[in-house]
Write a structure and sequence with these properties.
Layout (H helix, E strand, L loop, with lengths): L1 H27 L7 E15 L5 E16 L11 H18 L4 H19 L6 E11 L3 E11 L6 E10 L4 E2 L11 H19 L4 H4 L4 H6 L5 E4 L3 E6 L12 E6 H4 L5 H7 L1 E4 L2 E4 L3
Parallel strand pairs: 2-3
Antiparallel strand pairs: 1-2, 3-4, 4-5, 5-6, 7-8, 8-9, 10-11
Length: 290
């Protein structure tokens, strides 16, 4: 009898220890790392590069997008404590590196301006200060950042040169992408091409002329390569922009065309719809984030 009582006490003790161990292990599990959110903003960078005698060689003014990684409380994430946070910081680094390169343009521009100034001095001509400017607008969804930019530079010619620019970035993969991938092998490229041709004819009709007289004669070929030009997105659709000289003469200015999501939706792939934050409801696309 004594042996059975002793065995019972031993088993009870072991069970108690096991229960305590399980409780302690459960309580010791680390709390999940706070979720992160992306926030893109624009910051202005300005720089004047001077020659040895104090003459301004180059003036740079850039409105640059900056991607930040924030915690749920709105504070900036600095040190990652999870793989998700490490990935978020790496994504931000890729994005910011692309636009951070603009900050070194002043030195390169000043080198050209210095050579030009020396030539002008020898020829008895007035010096010219080179200028470089970039303005940007930004659109963001949970997975996409689309940046539309207007770049203007002056290097002493008859007028400044203006260039429409764009950048599209996938926050999930951490990569910049070409807009044609939104079709995922479908007919998006061809559909947009035909839609642009239609708009070109409408513009020419308003000017009471033919497209080949308003645009370059090979406008059809140029429009077929639309994804290589300035393509950006906003809450309602896609913009395709051609800088002066690209589709028409300088006097005609930039040529900008717009395609709403209602038109694009049937020609987008599943990934493209998700990237743009679109969802089908009652047969019509609906923006679900932005």
């Amino acid at each position: 009898m004594s042996a059975m009582i002793a065995l019972f006490l031993v088993l009870s003790t072991l069970a108690g220890c096991a229960g305590e161990t399980l409780v302690n292990v459960k309580n010791a599990l680390p709390e999940p790392a706070p979720a992160v959110v992306f926030l893109v903003e624009t910051e202005r960078f300005e720089e004047d590069v001077l020659d040895e005698d104090g003459t301004v060689l180059a003036e740079c003014s850039y409105e640059l997008p900056v991607l930040r990684v924030l915690l749920e409380d709105g504070s900036a994430l600095e040190d990652a404590v999870s793989s998700e946070q490490e990935h978020a910081l790496a994504v931000a680094d890729v994005f910011n590196a692309r636009f951070g390169q603009w900050k070194s343009n002043g030195k390169t521009l000043a080198e050209s301006a210095r050579e030009d100034r020396a030539f002008r001095n020898e020829a008895g001509l007035a010096s010219v200060s080179y200028t470089d400017e970039l303005s940007c607008t930004v659109y963001q969804t949970e997975q996409l950042i689309s940046v539309s930019g207007l770049y203007s530079t002056y290097t002493g010619g008859a007028h400044p040169n203006s260039i429409l620019m764009s950048w599209n970035f996938d926050l999930e993969t951490g990569e910049f992408f070409e807009p044609e991938i939104l079709g995922e092998g479908g007919d998006l490229r061809e559909y947009v091409h035909l839609a642009l041709i239609k708009q070109v004819w409408e513009v020419a009709a308003e000017a009471e002329t033919m497209p080949k007289d308003y645009y370059w004669e090979d406008y059809d070929v140029i429009l077929a390569d639309w994804s290589s030009y300035a393509v950006s997105f906003d809450e309602a659709g896609m913009t395709v922009g051609f800088s002066p000289y690209e589709l028409a003469c300088y006097a005609a200015g930039p040529q900008v065309f717009y395609l709403p999501y209602e038109q694009l939706y049937p020609h987008l792939g599943q990934h493209g719809r998700a990237l743009l934050g679109l969802e089908e409801e009652s047969g019509e696309p609906e923006i679900v984030n932005g």
